[in-house]
Fold:
Amino acid sequence: MNRSGALLVVLSFAACARALPPPGGPTDRAPPRLLSTYPDSLEVLTTFKGQVEFRFDEVVSEGGAANFGLGTGDLEKLIILSPSTRVPKIAWKRSRITVSPREGWRPNTVYRVELLPGVADLSNNRSKNGRVITFTTGAPLPTATLRGRVVDWQTQRPPPRAAVEAVHLPDSVSYRTQTDSAGYFELKPIPAGEYLVYGVLDQNNDFRRGAREPFDSARIAAGRDSVGELWAFRHDTTAVRITTAVFNDSLSVLLSFSQSLDPYQRLPADSVEVRRLPDSTHVRVVALLTREAYDTAYAPKPKPDTTAGADSAKARARADSVRADSIARAREAAAIRIPGAERRRAPVQDTTGTGPLKTKPPLFDKLYIRVAEPLKPGTNYAVQVHGLRNLSRIAGNPRGVVRVPEVKPPADTTKAKPDTTKAKAKPDTSKAKAKPDTAKTPRVMSHES
Structure:
């Protein structure tokens, strides 16, 4: 084969490596539509050895990342197979996606295969709907449902696409799903019984609970379907440490910790020790407070503006606001009376519920120590908090040292400054020195010998 023929073969293989939409014709803006699945949901297949299939009405995209069974492929991120503990085998077959467990189908097991929204066609139109196939290989058909919500405790907001894992007790078979954009989930149908449910902030998108990923759990008795809210947080088995201890003002010290603290623990004043170094003199502590409590009790309050000019400006602003409101009401009433006039509508309020939730208190990792006597400038103080718990309720006795900065003496402004306004007297050069008068001839005295 000559060089041109070999080049033609290479180009033909490269063109077949990735399917592209045919040129010409109208632009495709419709996402791929799921036509059917195999098997149908809620079937009992005691001798099932094949593959689960999702069939679409057009060729779907294989994605840019290949599927090697490692959880990195684009299609692998759209399939959740339960109760398998390994990444499933997922194959792209143009208009079909096939799924099977790497360890094979087990007998007498309830399987749940969930296709998540996001399947794309060759024009990158993505579907917004998913599908769940539930079948058994000999076990009774499932009838139970678990529903709830996952919340990120650090932000107090529901995260999208959080992982949910329900462990069936006592056989430890796990069924998994993913939350929607508002943090809600509904896991059904699954076998009846008692479950240990985990809500996980899935940071690596593998639909599993990682060792360092924040999570929360709840034990749900048999017959219950409501899980409630799962407030995910990072679990740590080590005690909390003081990272920084800084001087805040003459009567307070600010402590920063290595992790979030248990917001339900009591923080009495006698749980803190403050000693002046080097003689370890005890300093009485008035309170140990969070930022909100400290700002409420001790933060300086802004002084009210009592100037006449400000009051008159506020009065004018109120009058302008009342006048504008009256004009708006009059125009709206006129719009009602005048046929064909466009009526102004009230602004639509946000009812999505994605703001911070108040079911649990906010987390914090800082505390303020308020002492009874002013801290001495240029002195070190040793600080220790007893029995301080983190979110995992691990108690510790963190220690730290704070340095109170020295206060520079103010400059003495009482000394009189030299008067630079008076200029030094300059010699008077206007008067010229008197010169001898050479116009007069001197008289010569003659002496006779």
